[in-house]
């Protein structure tokens, strides 16, 4: 539920670790082969002394674990934060390859899920009755955890994208809030012309952002068929539409050359020199905590679209929790998952700044009518929940997405740096991705 | 300080010759090296709020250094102190052990003849060339089969090996411990261990301390190995722990604690600076040893 891939370059060795481990990530047969259980069996297991290990970095996990242990005092949950994002996945992958040492339950972002699910590292939860939970979650998050007729995780949070903007900046310049990307570019020009140090947004290239933007544009660059047939095509209509639009912003220096989550970024969000952020719905909590001095100046609006009046959004970040195939206590692990991602856990999650993926929470009056002081009293959840409904269906990620994202900087990132055509950057990314996929034994289409 | 590559002309002593350009260049380099440190000191006095709203390279806003230190030490039930203790453990046992083993081994290679010495030499030289990070993943897989991952041993055992330290002591011992002294000691009836601990060890002190400093710095800053090996935050060293704090803000609903990350980093480097100040005279003489034939 780290929102966004902040790519951390922990060195070549990390990529190598991932590469070597991907090749052989079939689960070892050491754990007893439990593929399902009835609700009664799970309830009974929760009343017996046992313990499970949970790996995750979401801050909401701690209070949820406490509540779970209170409800099921015989279960001991060991919660470990083994790293955020990539660090976490590398560790998970290493433990899976080693055959021991993996947790029973792991947090996983939607973009990384196929990698673990399709390689057999995560348990298919269908046999435990997960299929009955479908109605509880939004279609886009449920779509993210269902792969190949299996259910490999339960959704925890979601990140439907919206446009967060500085009301003061737009008011001072007499600018309308953009509703289409053409208007967005025009506003970007006006903001930069009025103050050369000010930009409509920041972007130095980020794999998570790029894929979400292509998602919104209706692109479908990744198609996964079965577990090993993959197509990568960044020349499809949606990808091109995004790249052509974004080219104008990058090539005319309308986006600040500042990476997200950096010191400069927070400064820009504080002083208004970064006027908008097109980002996931989990952002309000981070603004309140990281940019306290700008309270009252931020607002949220729907993400600009390509066609006037045709709402479209995408998911940006967000994730769920999965049960490891290696787990020797799958019944309790699944029982924990139902608590964590079900009604009780979702309530605690939302109370601690998470953006839910559960329909009941998203549609509750209390949630929708919440007036955020930080956002000048705006009912922000009305905008964000609508965004969740507008998410374009049909997107999927690669079964080796964490690796693909790790080489984004060498390909698309280069196009950003040299202000050359992003379409060419995407083509280079496609080429490198396909090459890696083939090396890993996938059947990959897309020269 | 370097005095340029040329010999000083006759009549001008090394103390009187000064180069304005070299002084300027060295001052710039010193500034370049010290600027991040300065930034760290300045920003550890700021609150989370002032951190992003005030100028980064000078003091402003509330002076919150003491507050920050208290918060750093108490945040999350004082986990910082636990990490500090872990780092100390890894350094004392790991770096201390590595230095001890390197001294024993280097001395033996320098002063004893035995079959296979050349092979050992080749292996050690080869090992110097292999970066530790490259071995981390294979070591992880091996340790995980032995059930050692996620224990302090997974950090300490690999830290005990310092091919570079061994090589340094070896090169140092060749000159620093005259073979004649050893022969004299043997003739007087001292055993090898007694000779080593009472005579050779003292002569080797500068080399020993040099290796100690290198291994302390390497173990103190060790990041990748513990990152891979450990999954329980109770065994994290400071490097991995601070990184976890740093990543925390970039999580939905995560609390931004950059002020604690910065203050924690400052506290983390204090011991290493102290160690350096205390040991630097040994280090200087250690590095200079052997450069001049006496």
UniProtKB/TrEMBL annotation, chain A:
InterPro entries membership: Bact_solute-bd_prot1 (IPR050490), SBP (IPR006059)
Superkingdom of the organism of origin: Bacteria
Keywords, in A-Z order: Signal
Gene3D superfamilies: Periplasmic binding protein-like II
Signal peptide positions (record): 1-26
This protein's record includes keyword Coiled coil: no
Record's protein name: Sugar ABC transporter substrate-binding protein
Lineage: Bacteria, Bacillati, Actinomycetota, Actinomycetes, Micrococcales
UniProtKB/TrEMBL annotation, chain B:
Classification via PROSITE patterns: ABC_TM1
Membrane topology: Multi-pass membrane protein
Gene Ontology biological-process annotations: transmembrane transport
Compartments in which it is found: Cell membrane
Keywords: Cell membrane, Membrane, Transmembrane, Transmembrane helix, Transport
Transmembrane segments annotated in the record for this chain: 20-42, 88-109, 121-143, 155-174, 195-217, 223-245, 257-279
Residue span, ABC transmembrane type-1 domain: 84-279
Primary site of residence: membrane
Record-stated family: Belongs to the binding-protein-dependent transport system permease family.
Name of the protein in its database record: Carbohydrate ABC transporter permease
Source organism of this protein record: Agromyces fucosus
């Amino acid at each position: 539920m780290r929102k966004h891939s902040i790519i951390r370059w922990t060195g070549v060795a990390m990529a190598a670790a991932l590469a070597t481990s991907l090749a052989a990530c079939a689960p070892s047969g050491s754990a007893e082969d439990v593929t399902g259980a009835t609700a009664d069996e799970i309830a009974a297991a929760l009343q017996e002394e046992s313990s499970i290990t949970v790996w995750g970095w979401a801050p909401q996990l701690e209070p949820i674990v406490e509540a779970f242990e209170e409800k099921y005092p015989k279960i001991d949950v060991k919660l470990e934060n083994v790293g955020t994002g990539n660090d976490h996945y590398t560790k998970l992958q290493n433990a899976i390859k080693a055959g021991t040492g993996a947790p029973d339950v792991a947090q996983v972002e939607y973009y990384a899920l196929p990698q673990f699910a399709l390689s057999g590292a995560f348990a298919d939860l269908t046999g435990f009755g997960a299929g009955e939970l479908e109605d509880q979650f939004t279609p886009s998050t449920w779509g993210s955890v269902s792969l190949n007729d299996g259910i490999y995780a339960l959704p925890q949070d979601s990140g439907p994208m919206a446009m967060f903007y500085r009301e003061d900046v737009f008011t001072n310049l007499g600018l309308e809030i953009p509703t289409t990307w053409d208007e967005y570019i025009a506003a970007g020009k006006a903001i930069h012309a009025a103050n050369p140090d000010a930009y409509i947004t920041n972007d130095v290239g980020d794999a998570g952002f790029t894929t979400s933007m292509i998602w919104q544009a209706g692109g479908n660059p990744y198609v996964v068929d079965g577990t090993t047939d993959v197509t990568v095509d960044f020349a499809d209509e949606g990808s091109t539409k995004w790249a052509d639009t974004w080219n104008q912003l990058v090539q005319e220096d309308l986006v600040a050359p500042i990476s997200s989550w950096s010191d400069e970024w927070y400064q820009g969000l504080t002083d208004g020199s970064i006027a908008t952020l097109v980002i996931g719905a989990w952002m309000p909590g981070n603004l309140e905590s990281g940019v306290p001095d700008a309270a009252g100046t931020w607002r949220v609006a729907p993400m600009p679209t390509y066609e006037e009046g045709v709402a479209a959004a995408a998911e940006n970040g967000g994730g769920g929790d999965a049960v490891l195939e290696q787990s020797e206590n799958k019944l309790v692990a699944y029982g924990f998952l139902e608590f964590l991602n079900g009604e009780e856990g979702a309530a605690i999650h939302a109370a601690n700044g998470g953006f839910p993926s559960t329909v009941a929470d998203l549609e509750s009056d209390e949630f929708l009518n919440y007036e955020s002081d930080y956002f000048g009293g705006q009912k922000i959840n009305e905008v964000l929940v609508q965004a969740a409904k507008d998410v374009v269906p049909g997107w999927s990620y690669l079964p080796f997405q964490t690796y693909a994202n790790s080489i984004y900087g060498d390909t698309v990132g280069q196009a950003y740096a040299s202000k050359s055509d992003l379409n060419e950057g995407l083509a280079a990314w496609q080429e490198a991705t396909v090459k890696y996929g083939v090396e890993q034994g996938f059947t990959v289409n897309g020269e | 300080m370097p005095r340029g590559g040329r010999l000083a002309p006759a009549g001008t002593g090394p103390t009187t010759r000064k180069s304005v350009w070299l002084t300027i260049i060295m001052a710039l380099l010193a500034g370049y090296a010290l600027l991040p440190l300065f930034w760290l000191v300045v920003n550890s006095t700021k609150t989370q709020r002032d951190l992003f709203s005030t100028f980064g390279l000078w003091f402003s806003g509330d002076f919150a250094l003491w507050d920050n230190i208290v918060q750093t030490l108490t945040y999350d039930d004082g986990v910082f102190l636990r990490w500090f203790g872990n780092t100390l453990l890894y350094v004392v046992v790991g770096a201390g052990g590595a230095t001890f083993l390197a001294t024993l081994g280097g001395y033996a290679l320098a002063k004893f003849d035995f079959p296979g010495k050349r092979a050992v030499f080749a292996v050690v030289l080869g090992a110097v060339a292999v970066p530790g990070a490259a071995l981390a993943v294979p070591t992880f897989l091996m340790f995980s089969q032995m059930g050692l991952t996620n224990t302090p041993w997974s950090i300490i055992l690999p830290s005990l090996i310092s091919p570079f330290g061994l090589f340094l002591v070896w090169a140092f011992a060749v000159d620093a411990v005259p073979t004649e002294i050893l022969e004299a000691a043997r003739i007087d009836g001292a055993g090898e261990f007694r000779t080593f601990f009472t005579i050779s060890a003292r002569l080797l002190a500068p080399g020993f301390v040099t290796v100690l400093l290198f291994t302390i710095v390497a173990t103190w800053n060790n990041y990748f190995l513990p990152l891979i090996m450990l999954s329980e935050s109770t065994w994290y060293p400071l490097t991995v722990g601070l990184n976890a704090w740093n990543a925390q803000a970039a999580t939905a609903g995560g609390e931004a604690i950059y002020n604690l990350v910065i203050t924690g980093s400052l506290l983390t480097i204090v011991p290493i600076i102290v160690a350096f100040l205390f040991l630097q005279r040994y280090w200087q003489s250690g590095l200079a040893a052997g450069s001049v034939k006496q």
